[in-house]
């Protein structure tokens, strides 16, 4: 399908060979399921097969979409929380000190996954997503009664970030258990749930803040997230049988960063995420500081995430044909050009701010969905959670 040598399926290494069944195409349940077979030489284990579609696989994608809607959707909406808290509950604190709350949230969201990754590889995603969902709903409910700086730091920063780490990696990783040659597309569809949440939550919060207040606004969001998490847990299924979870297996393994390809990819993701979350955190505040209305400023955050929905589907689809690393590089360049050409020259122009939000949103969507797919090409599927979580340790220190 025109995939470059760099972007061959990762499991087909020097000690394994790749064979494919019938050509990959549109899959319906009335037809034989198209499969990609990964066969290993030199052992008695059965080959790993990827259905590349079918009812079970696409229901798992839907479950992953719902889990990411309620986890990454909140991360993509931090600008809506940041702007309100900065101007109300924590108005007496400097912007840099308030930003630390959301920095801790994002940092723990990536860092704590280093423990969740090995558990996911051994036991599957359901228990982790359940625990993360409970923590997410709890921090949203508790945030409504927060009044002091340390309240927000503990509730939003620590509890929210830790809960995010339990959901994010497993929800993305389980999609890779069912797809190989179509992994870019499937992961893009699943991760678009985070973008959809980033559209819905800022608009809901902007509407509810003046009507019912901050506390009830966060409770409404908590209810939406709770319903989505329940559906996600019911839909997501583990693919492989459980493995023994010894202390050695559960501990983080930073030695895998000795792999030059993984280390370079993780460092690239570090710089990519560093730039990605600046607009998500500050575009709303920037617009407010330049005299834009509250409704317009919150709409910009929704526009970023609206642009990211096709930005996760389209590059994901193309990456399966043109190469996953190739498309990731292209989307990173697109983000950089939009920052330099649109945001830095926007001033107080509403038209340029809207153009930046849509263009940056499209390219940033590809960044988020393609990074885990690229990392998945550097390891076997049984170790995917551990590799992806370890790579995110570098991302967390940004």
UniProtKB/TrEMBL annotation:
Predominant place of localization: membrane
Transmembrane segments: 57-78, 98-120, 127-150, 156-178, 185-205, 211-236, 256-276, 296-313, 325-345, 351-376
Membrane-topology descriptor: Multi-pass membrane protein
Gene3D superfamilies: MFS general substrate transporter like domains
Chain positions covered by the region annotation Disordered: 1-28
Record key words, sorted: Membrane, Transmembrane, Transmembrane helix
Domain of life, per lineage: Eukaryota
Domain Major facilitator superfamily (MFS) profile: 56-398
GO cellular-component term (any): membrane
Biased segments, Polar residues type: 12-25
Locations listed in the record: Membrane
MF annotations from Gene Ontology: transmembrane transporter activity
Pfam families: MFS_1 (PF07690)
Annotated Basic and acidic residues bias: 1-10
PANTHER family: MONOCARBOXYLATE TRANSPORTER (PTHR11360), RIBOFLAVIN TRANSPORTER MCH5 (PTHR11360:SF177)
UniProt similarity note: Belongs to the major facilitator superfamily. Monocarboxylate porter (TC 2.A.1.13) family.
Protein name per Swiss-Prot or TrEMBL: Ribokinase
Taxonomic source organism: Colletotrichum spaethianum
């Amino acid at each position: 399908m025109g995939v470059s040598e760099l972007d061959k399926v990762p499991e087909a290494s020097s000690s394994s060979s790749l064979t494919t069944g019938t050509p990959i195409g549109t899959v319906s349940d009335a037809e034989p399921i198209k499969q990609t077979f990964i066969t290993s030489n030199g052992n008695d284990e059965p080959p790993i097969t990827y259905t590349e579609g079918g009812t079970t696989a696409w229901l798992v994608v839907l479950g992953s979409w719902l889990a990411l809607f309620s986890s990454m959707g909140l991360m993509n909406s931090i600008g809506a929380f940041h702007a309100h808290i900065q101007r109300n509950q924590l108005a007496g604190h400097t912007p840099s000190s308030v930003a630390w709350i959301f920095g801790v949230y994002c940092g723990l969201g990536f860092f704590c996954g280093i423990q969740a990754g090995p558990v996911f590889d051994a036991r599957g995603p359901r228990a982790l997503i359940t625990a993360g969902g409970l923590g997410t709903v709890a921090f949203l409910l508790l945030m409504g009664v927060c009044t002091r700086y340390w309240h927000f730091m503990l509730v939003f920063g620590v509890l929210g970030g830790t809960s995010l780490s339990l959901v994010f990696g497993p929800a993305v990783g389980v999609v890779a258990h069912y797809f190989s040659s179509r992994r870019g597309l499937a992961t893009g569809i699943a991760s678009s749930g985070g973008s959809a949440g980033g559209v819905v939550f800022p608009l809901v919060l902007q509407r509810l803040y003046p009507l019912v207040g901050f506390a009830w606004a966060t409770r409404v969001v908590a209810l939406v997230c709770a319903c989505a998490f329940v559906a996600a847990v019911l839909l997501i299924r583990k693919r492989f049988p459980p493995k023994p979870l010894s202390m050695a297996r559960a501990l983080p393994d930073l030695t895998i960063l000795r792999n030059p390809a993984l280390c370079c990819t993780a460092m690239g993701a570090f710089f990519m995420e560093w730039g990605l979350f600046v607009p998500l955190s500050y575009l709303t505040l920037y617009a407010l500081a330049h005299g834009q209305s509250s409704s317009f400023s919150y709409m910009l955050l929704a526009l970023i995430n609206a642009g990211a929905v096709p930005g996760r589907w389209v590059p994901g689809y193309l990456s399966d044909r043109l190469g996953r690393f190739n498309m990731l590089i292209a989307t990173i360049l697109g983000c950089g050009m939009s920052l330099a050409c649109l945001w830095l020259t926007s001033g107080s122009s509403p038209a340029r701010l809207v153009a930046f939000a849509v263009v940056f949103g499209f390219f940033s969507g590809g960044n988020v969905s393609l990074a885990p797919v690229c990392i998945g090409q550097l390891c076997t599927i049984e170790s995917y959670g551990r590799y992806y979580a370890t790579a995110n340790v570098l991302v967390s220190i940004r």
